Amino acid sequence: MGTRSLTYVYDDVDEPVLCMYRQFDGYPSGHGAELGEFLLPFKIVNGISGDAKLGKVANGMGCLGAQLVANFKTEVGNIYLHAPILGRDDCQEYEYHVTDSSVKVVLNGYEEPDEVIFEGSYEEFFDFCQEKVKKLENVCR
Question: According to the model, what pLDDT value does residue 91 have?
Answer without folding.
Answer: 93
